[in-house]
Design a protein that fits this description.
globular, 24% helix, 7 helices, alpha+beta, 12-stranded mixed beta sheet, two-stranded parallel ribbon
Length: 343
Amino acid sequence: MGHRAGVNQQPFDEEARHWPASPHEATRFILDQVPGCEPVEGAPPQGERYAHGEDVPVLLQPELIEGSDFRAIPVADPKSLRGESDFAAFLDGTQDVRVVNHVHGIPIVWATLSSAIRARVNRRLVSWSGHPPIVRKRYYLPFCYVDGIRADLKSDPRVVDTAQSDSPDRVPSRHPAALMEAAFKRVQIDRETMELSLAEEWCARETRPLYIDGSIAGSEKVSTCRFAVGVVKTHRRLYAEGNAFRTLIGLRAGERSSIFRVSNRPRFPVASWYVRLRPAAGRDALFGLVRAEASISDDIVERTAEISKWIIAEGAPLALPDGRWDKMAYGIRDTEEFLRAIS
């Protein structure tokens, strides 16, 4: 598997020509479109500090599908599973988010979003032939706080109103941090929409397993597809309260938890379970821990045993030097590197 495998398609971009292609061009372009703008040159990418907003870490009681007790179930020794994965491809996305201008203290955000499916062909990863990679570049700003925006800019789908809401009570505060959180949330929604659109394409065309970085619950088509598997690396919500928490934290490498149902409206219900990829002794309690999602079916227990082995097998080779190597599949790291190269 090599991330420098040849690209057999050009990225699909919904944007018209002459749209800014870089943060510097985005800074200069918006100066002519919005009165009173001030440039922010050389602004670094905005990190995870805006990613969660009010998403407070919580423990939730798991709604069990398998058995009556939340327990640890052996899957296999990770060292024995090298190369024994049936995942045919990997889906992931990236985002680069920057403040490129200010208007009287109001941040104007420029984001580059991308997503792709990388398929295994002769043990190498290449762009999936079913759909080319997607790259989109967009502005995010609150229309209600910015005066004098040109009408054609407001109507452009590449310019996103981060204060748009059916209820005035839900319009974000004018505080710059609140506006950045609102922009970041919209970026994440747009990115997930892009990724799930590719996943839906895969589900419509393929009958091979797809490893998706993140949840599959945002799409009805994907959440009910037998060939889509979501792997969640972050754990703001832990489905393990009380004794279940002790069981979860005690999972050893090569073990999984009992299967439970995740059904957070307005998202779609899925079967879920935890898998420990690497030993956590002497590490953070969540080290090497991922949560898998798959469609609910009568044979979910058998499918979970199989899928868990694949997920564990994808832990080799290591996804170094990425800081998330303990939870990241090498195929996902390959996809991110590929997207950074074409974005």
